[in-house]
């Protein structure tokens, strides 16, 4: 009897827990759209775009050395977990003139993981401010034109987030300074939007095969 109980705890319970949480993601529905039609990146230099991508969007500002710890948090907790998914990218906005600092940051990140889906675009501070306003959040850039918050933008350039967050009510972005927030909130929300697109893809494939 004791051996049976141990086997159940070691093997059956983890499987049941996995199925419960996996189904929970699918049953959770869509991640709410908070802002539609976020600006595209035509005015920025860099080989990246929002359309057709599931994007984790950030603003590094001019003091990249001070915020690189946040980038490492994001890399370890979000990027490494989801980088294998098609059409997933990290996209960081940086003021023009800080290309060398970005190269150094990307090299450091590259010692921890493959950084093929870490993209950076550059623009004037005015262009970055204008773009940030298109997100229509309750947040703002600091004096370096950066923020520790990152945002989820879907393939149609809609900002996704939470409209019933237990702490903030409407939650537009995720604070990369907080590992707990990345673990407990952002990871769940990225799972939801990826599950949403996987489900849509399965439906499209099923319809084509009919």
What does this structure look like?
- The chain is an alpha+beta fold and 210 residues long.
- It has two domains: 1-30; 32-209, 3-Layer(aba) Sandwich (Glutaredoxin), CATH 3.40.30.
- Helices cover 47% and strands 20% of the residues.
- It is built from five helices and nine strands.
- Strands 1, 2, 3, 4, 5, 6 and 9 form a seven-stranded mixed β-sheet that branches. Strands 7-8 form a two-stranded antiparallel ribbon.
- Strand 7 and strand 8 form a beta hairpin.
- Helix 2 packs across helix 3 and helix 2 (64-82) crosses helix 5.
- The chain is globular.
- The termini are far apart.
Write a concise keyword list for the protein shown above.
210 residues; alpha+beta; Glutaredoxin; seven-stranded mixed beta sheet; two-stranded antiparallel ribbon; 5 helices; globular
CATH topology of the largest domain: Glutaredoxin
Assign the CATH class of the largest domain: Alpha Beta
Number of separate structural domains: 2
User: How far is the N terminus from the C terminus?
Assistant: 51 Å
CATH superfamily of the largest domain: Glutaredoxin
Largest beta-sheet characterization? 7 strands, mixed
What ranges have pLDDT less than 50 throughout 5 or more consecutive residues?
Answer: 16-28
Radius of gyration: 19 Å
- Tell me which CATH architecture of the largest domain applies here: 3-Layer(aba) Sandwich
The coarse silhouette is globular
The helix content is 40-55%
Structural class: alpha+beta
Report the average pLDDT across residues: 88
